[in-house]
Write a structure and sequence with these properties.
Helix content: 10-25%
Oligomer: single chain
Pfam families: tRNA_U5-meth_tr
Bound molecules: S-adenosylmethionine
Keywords: Iron, Iron-sulfur, Metal-binding, Methyltransferase, S-adenosyl-L-methionine, Transferase
GO molecular function: iron-sulfur cluster binding; RNA methyltransferase activity
Number of domains: 3
CATH topology of the largest domain: Rossmann fold
EC number: 2.1.1.190
CATH superfamily of the largest domain: Vaccinia Virus protein VP39
Protein name: 23S rRNA (Uracil(1939)-C(5))-methyltransferase RlmD
Strand order of the largest sheet: 7-6-5-8-9-10-11
């Protein structure tokens, strides 16, 4: 398979042909378009399966072929984990020269979900409205397009989220709730965000609107009544007037409460966290504590440690680390997340956790951050990884402060491999890489990399 989840055939002359929909182990006949002159890869125009791969799964997702979000859901789960580990994690590390004879076995087997948790694991769904063949629906966009695929039947989505979407769909024919079109800028409703707080099960819905219709107040009452059986703890309205594909508006005053509270309360590994409309939290409920525990256990926090948590969001890992350490310092560039982190620290009576609202690449150059002199570091960056010189600056800071270990959690093994090469050349040894599957079915793996300071 290629890294996008399509089948890939290697011909004896070294050329490759991409066969979307085919799986490793399938026996097929195909017609294909050869590569462009100078190119290496051709594309299948059609294919016929003579014998299906023994690793094919037929019952994991009925939408897998149509929606394109989970190309791996047509394989059995153990094969999916094995392939994703090799394609997404081993290959980029090898390309960076990090898997030499000495380091060949640093990549562990991928940690997957138990079979019974492969359904309904999402705690967040971002659904788009649309009218398909005259019928109103909420759904996901088909991979690499803005074509709507109705969400009904998506195995990742909990049933109550499907029920909420089904309840609201008929309202889409009301002009005060009509689907917004990015192309024409007509309509009202941009997205429906549904969230469920891990640990407590509290439910939230956010209606993101491009504009408010004059008669929205009348509709509001009917929406609230219709949603009553869903048992929402929070129903919010987010006014998002800017063009573009950002899911909601972060502008002050853009979110108001229609029903219940302004946020929901989560409990993660025994600590309480407030979730607002826009708060970042890992989307996979059963796998989040697995990921965090693995990173914190492998970091090996002792009572006297000073833990620096980079890209800390609302302080989830900072506070979990603070519970085991002498002091923890979280750094994050979104000021609102830092406010939430401070509130979360107070709510959990963790007075040994502090937070700074700064871009990491700038913070690592500051004297007060250097003076914190961490003994251990956590980094959990966004897709871009330790960007803007942060990898080099982190290597220097860890050396200067004599920090023992770094736990680097990454949602993008490619930028992880790039950063691992920089960190390795600044005196940190890559001890282990554990892939953790946060998105079964999708071509995605999270990794936890542990780096040790060389003696
Ligand atoms: C993958 S999230 C991790 C959040 C947190 N560790 C958690 O598990 O909930 C990455 C975080 O990095 C923040 N971020 C992105 N770029 C940043 C930068 N240059 N400096 C600081 N924070 C940044 C994002 O706002 C986001 O909260």
């Amino acid at each position: 398979m290629d890294a996008g989840g399509a089948g890939l055939i290697r011909l004896p002359d070294g050329l490759e042909v991409i066969v979307p929909g085919a799986r490793p182990g399938d026996e097929i006949t195909l017609a294909y378009r050869p590569p462009q002159p100078g190119g290496r890869r051709g594309l299948a125009e059609s294919f016929e399966t003579l014998a299906a791969s023994p690793d094919r799964a037929h019952d994991r997702c009925a939408l897998a072929g149509d929606c394109g979000g989970c190309p791996m859901a047509r394989l059995n789960y153990s094969k999916e984990l094995e392939l994703k580990r090799d394609l997404l994690v081993v290959e980029p590390l090898r390309a960076q020269g990090l898997l030499d004879a000495e380091n060949a076995s640093v990549v562990e087997a991928a940690v997957g979900l138990p079979e019974e948790k492969l359904r309904g694991f999402r705690n967040k769904a971002v659904l788009y409205p649309g009218i398909l063949d005259g019928i109103p629906h909420f759904g996901y966009y088909r991979a690499r397009s803005q074509e709507l695929v109705p969400a009904e039947g998506c195995p990742q989505t909990p049933k109550w989220m499907e029920d909420a979407a089904r309840t609201l769909a008929p309202f889409l024919t009301d002009p005060a709730f009509a689907p917004w079109s990015e192309r024409t800028d007509e309509g009202i409703l941009r997205t429906l965000i549904l969230r469920e707080a891990p640990g407590t099960g509290e439910r939230m819905a956010v209606l993101v609107v491009r504009r408010l219709a004059a008669d929205f107040a009348a509709l509001e009452k009917r929406l609230i009544d219709a949603l009553a059986p869903i048992g929402l703890a929070a129903l919010l309205l987010n006014l998002h007037e800017a063009p573009g594909s950002a899911v909601l508006s972060f502008a002050p005053g853009s979110t108001r409460v229609l029903l219940g509270k302004s946020g929901i309360e989560a409990n993660l590994l025994g600590l309480a966290f407030s979730l607002g409309a826009e708060t970042f939290l890992q989307v996979n409920t059963p796998q989040t504590p697995v990921l965090y525990s693995l990173a914190l256990d492998q970091l090996g926090i002792a009572e006297g440690d000073r833990v620096l948590d980079l890209y800390c969001g609302v302080g989830t890992l900072t506070l979990l680390a603070a519970r085991r350490a002498r002091k923890a310092l979280g750094i994050e560039r979104v000021p609102h997340s830092i406010e939430c982190a401070r509130t979360n620290a107070r709510a959990n009576h963790l007075g040994n956790a502090e937070f700074l609202a700064l871009p990491v690449e700038k913070a690592l150059e500051r004297e007060d951050v250097k003076a914190f002199a961490p003994t251990l570091v956590i980094a959990d960056p966004a897709y871009q990884g330790l960007a803007g010189g942060a990898a080099e600056a982190l290597g220097k800071l860890m050396k200067a402060s004599g920090a023992k270990r770094l736990a680097y959690i990454s949602c993008n093994p490619k930028s992880f491999a790039r950063d691992a090469a920089v960190l390795s050349s600044s005196g940190l040894r890559l001890r282990s890489v554990t892939p953790v599957d946060m998105f079964p079915g999708a071509m995605h793996l999270e990794v936890v990399g542990i780096f040790e300071a060389e003696a």
